[in-house]
Amino acid sequence: MTKKAVVLSSGGIDSTTAMAMAKAAGNEIFSLSFRYGQRHLVELECARQVALALKARTHKIIDIDLGQFGGSALTADISVPKHDRVDQLDATQIPITYVPARNTIFLSYAMAWAEVLKASAIYIGVTAVDYSGYPDCRPEFITAFETMANLATKTGVTKETVLTIETPLIHMSKAQIITTGTGLGIDYSFTISCYDPDEQGHSCGHCDSCLHRIKGFKEAGIKDPTPYFHG
């Protein structure tokens, strides 16, 4: 029987690499993205292209509105911080681009879909190495959610399906992620990382996520296919 995996997809480097790794592990891919009130929607077009390129069985986009709560530069009228270099980022602070409870909410939707599909895995491209200090990217959070998921679902209680939350990138640097994905044939020109792209979908080159992306490609020794406007 073919294994099934729900893969959370933002159209970025990390989720795309996680999807390629899920596919390489022999899973049938069910791609899941969200229109959650984020300040730009170009990432959803990227996620659609990624799902097509990796031959996902289907790609769902779920509508929720975290903008109702605000509290993040990605969902409210708050400026996205810009810097010139990665070493200017303050790794000791949770940045204003953190969206409250986002991964908890996304994983909950993925858990519901996985239960219906009787999928045994959810893949999420979180990393605890080159990341922006988000609390819901930590291994402790993932472990706790996996425990909860198997307590909260019918398939978990009956042991019909034991759900695992797969985080294949959790201990990888951005350069290692890019190298791994390139080895799996990923075309990263389909992806976007920027928190504040322009209307044409070009990346700013100065937000936290762009700086980590630029650094990752440079350290991997791989050409960055990203169009930047350096806003």
Summary tags:
alpha/beta, 231 residues, 7 helices, 5 strands, Rossmann fold, five-stranded parallel sheet
Detailed description of the structure:
- This protein is of the alpha/beta class.
- The protein has one domain: Rossmann fold, CATH 3.40.50.620.
- It has helices at about 15-25, 40-55, 100-115, 140-150, 155, 175-185, 210-220; strands at about 5-10, 25-35, 60-65, 120-125, 165.
- The protein has a five-stranded parallel beta sheet with strand order 3-2-1-4-5, sandwiched between helices.
- Helix 1 packs across helix 6 and helix 6 (about 175-185) packs across helix 7 (about 210-220).
- The chain starts with a strand and ends in an 11-residue tail after the last helix.
- The mean pLDDT is about 95.
Reconstruct the topology from this structure.
Blueprint: E1 3-8, H1 13-24, E2 27-35, H2 42-53, E3 58-63, H3 102-117, E4 121-123, H4 139-152, H5 154-157, E5 164-166, H6 174-183, H7 208-220
Parallel strand pairs: 1-2, 1-4, 2-3, 4-5
Helix pairs in contact: 1-6, 6-7
